[in-house]
């Protein structure tokens, strides 16, 4: 065994029946070994495996059973000693798996030395969570949340020595209310097992609690909000799981559990939604009026159908081809680097998100953070089939590129997509482009803007606000002003806010740059030279 001062441990260990040189570089923290198997036809042998310390899940001493002991080189040892390293292995389509490798040692002392060195390396990974609070929605998606957690996630958390407090929710808002009661500060993260709605609930609980503890009034749309340093983890078990897909690249509980274990951190923009100085909701994925609002309103009555409710209501809403009149006003994002028509997407370590954050910090240092108040507003009146504001791409299994493929997770802006009244055929062409490689914004009836703030007011509300004079009528402001007695609900849509409906059709929206953090790292770019290839964790260089 060689142990030079640089902190490198090199030993000849056993991998099955064959010997193999294994190296542990303490700085920068890499475990390396070379596959010893003989060459097979059509396959090269001796591939080097490199596992960064940040992707080692656990190390443990291994009992060599009788069968293994009687075979190969183990036979030559009086009492074999071995240790197993559990680590992240990348598979296709951004999937992560927990893989393991067992190394045999000639004596107990060498085995203990390796185990100790690896454990010390694991202890030095400071961003890893040790204690988590887990909320499971047993009724989300296909109602598999509890099973998914118990079978796929809990064993991994146990392996990684993470302790958990688990709450199985009994009703909607259980998790949100609970977050105002428990001592959240003793946890390194909050995990939600469910869909986008469950994430939204946990996020509202966490943001609300942090603001309460910081003495910040969420109803004031101008107040800067306190950032949440406690990360949120998502174990996908919902119907759309768009936030998981757009931040990890796949909807897969095991992959998400591994991102939590290794302590990933992905900041996320959050939009705050107000009306008349009243806080309504926060949104991280889609805030949609018209088409997506109507799908949601219809699908809520069909929750019993599970995820298929969206296909049913989607088809019905498409056929209804309803458009809505109103006024959209917005402030174009000036402090951001990218544009919604970029070809480049937001990926792990995104340059655009980093640069935008730096710009924002520079502005803060020069006391210019409130400069946006004076920035010009652009006003668009029209008839819209859909108004979609997205803080991220909104990629999901139904739409692998999402509603705005170049939107960024953490650039402090949202992409505002206006789909004006057009024929059914053209609207279908637009929807089909959600699912293929063609440019969704390359239509004369679609406009897209990168914004920091926007407002919307439906025509009915505008008319009512100017028409209705007495207070009694104003309470029924959303009813038909031409026929005050008939109570027919005018064609107002509702807002779909991350899969939940909003009570008001008039909204004022402001993007809060990187308000929350997730246990994720954005979608990895395998072509990136710092990424590893899918078959052997080898560095692509
Ligand atoms: N025990 C419970 N009973 C009923 N509703 C619950 C319970 N726990 C949570 N909820 C609510 O269920 C809603 C939907 O849950 P969730 O997001 O997990 O599934 P989904 O709607 O099928 O998926 P998606 O949001 O991805 O479309 C959430 O808004 C949450 O508030
Ligand atoms: C003929 C081909 C037409 C195909 C059209 C497919 C379009 C799919 C786009 C999906 C966009 C999802 C955006 C994410 C929204 C989530 O915040 C929200 C909560 O989970 N989900 C929905 O509102 C559920 C929305 C579901 C819509 C179907
Ligand atoms: Ca954004």
Hetero groups: adenosine-5'-triphosphate, N-((E,2S,3R)-1,3-dihydroxyoctadec-4-EN-2-yl)hexanamide, calcium ion
Q: What is the tally of helical segments?
A: 13
Span between N and C termini?
29 Å
Q: What's the helical proportion of residues? A: 10-25%
How many discrete domains? 3
CATH topology of the largest domain: Tumour Suppressor Smad4
Tell me the total number of β-strands: 21
| Overall pLDDT | 88
Low-confidence stretches: 469-490, 528-541
Query: What is the overall silhouette?
Result: elongated
Strand content: 25-35%
Coarse structural class: alpha+beta
- The Rg value, from CA coordinates, equals 27 Å
| Major pleated sheet | 10 strands, antiparallel
**Named CATH architecture of the largest domain:** Sandwich
CATH class (first level) name of the largest domain: Mainly Beta
Domain DAGKc: 127-277
Pfam family, one: PH_CERK
GO molecular function: ceramide kinase activity; magnesium ion binding
Protein name: Ceramide kinase
Summarize this entry quickly.
Helix content is 25%, strand content 29%. The chain is of the alpha+beta class and 541 residues long. The strands form 4 sheets. Strands 12, 13, 14, 15, 16, 17, 18, 19, 20 and 21 form a 10-stranded antiparallel sheet that branches. Strands 1-2-3-4 form a 4-stranded antiparallel sheet, with helices on one face.
């Amino acid at each position: 065994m060689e142990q030079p001062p640089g902190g490198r441990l090199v030993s000849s260990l056993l991998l099955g029946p064959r010997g193999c040189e294994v190296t542990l570089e303490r700085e920068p923290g890499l475990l390396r070994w070379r596959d010893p198997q003989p060459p097979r036809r059509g396959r090269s042998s001796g591939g080097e495996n490199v596992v960064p310390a940040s992707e080692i899940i656990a190390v443990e001493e291994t009992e060599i059973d009788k069968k293994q002991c009687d075979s190969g080189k183990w036979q030559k040892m009086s009492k074999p000693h071995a240790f197993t390293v559990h680590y992240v292995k990348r598979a296709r389509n951004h999937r992560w798996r927990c893989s393991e490798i067992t190394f045999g040692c000639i004596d107990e002392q060498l085995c203990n030395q390796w185990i100790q060195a690896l454990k010390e390396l694991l202890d030095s990974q400071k961003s890893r969570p040790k204690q988590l609070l887990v909320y499971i929605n047993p009724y989300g998606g296909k109602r598999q949340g509890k099973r998914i957690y118990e079978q796929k996630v809990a064993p991994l958390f146990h392996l990684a020595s993470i302790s958990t407090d688990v709450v199985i929710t009994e009703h909607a808002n259980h998790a949100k209310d609970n977050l105002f009661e428990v001592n959240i500060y003793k946890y390194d993260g909050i995990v939600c097992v469910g869909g986008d709605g469950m994430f939204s609930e946990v996020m509202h609980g966490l943001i609300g609690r942090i603001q309460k503890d910081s003495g910040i009034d969420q109803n004031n749309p101008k107040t800067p909000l306190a950032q949440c340093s406690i990360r949120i983890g998502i174990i996908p078990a919902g119907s759309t799981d768009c936030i998981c897909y757009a931040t990890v690249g796949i909807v897969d509980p095991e992959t998400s559990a591994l991102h939590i274990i290794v302590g990933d951190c992905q900041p996320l923009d959050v939009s705050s939604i107000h009306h008349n100085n009243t806080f309504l909701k926060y949104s991280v994925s889609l805030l949609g009026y018209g088409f997506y609002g109507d799908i949601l309103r219809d699908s809520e009555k069909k929750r019993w159908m599970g995820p298929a409710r969206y296909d049913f209501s989607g088809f019905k809403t498409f056929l209804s081809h309803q458009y809505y009149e109103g006024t959209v006003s917005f402030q174009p994002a000036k402090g951001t680097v990218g544009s919604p028509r970029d070809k480049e997407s937001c990926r792990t370590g995104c340059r655009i998100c980093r640069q935008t954050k730096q710009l924002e910090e520079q502005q803060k240092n020069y006391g210019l953070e409130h400069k946006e108040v004076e920035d010009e507003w652009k006003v668009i009146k029209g008839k819209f089939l859909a108004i979609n504001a997205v803080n991220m791409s909104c990629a999901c299994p139904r739409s692998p590129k999402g509603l705005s493929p170049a939107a960024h997770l953490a650039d402090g802006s949202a992409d505002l997509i206006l789909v004006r009244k057009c024929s059914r055929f053209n609207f279908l062409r637009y929807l089909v482009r959600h699912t293929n490689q063609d440019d969704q914004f390359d239509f004369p009836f679609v406009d897209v803007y990168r914004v920091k703030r926007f407002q919307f007011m439906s025509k009915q509300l505008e008319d009512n606000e100017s028409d209705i004079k007495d207070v009694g009528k104003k309470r029924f402001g959303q009813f038909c002003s031409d026929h005050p007695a008939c109570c027919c609900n005018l064609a107002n849509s509702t807002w779909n806010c991350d899969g939940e409906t909003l009570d008001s059709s008039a909204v004022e929206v402001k993007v809060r740059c990187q308000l929350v953090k997730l246990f994720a790292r954005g979608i990895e770019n395998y072509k990136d030279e710092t990424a590893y290839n899918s078959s052997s964790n080898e560095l692509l260089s």
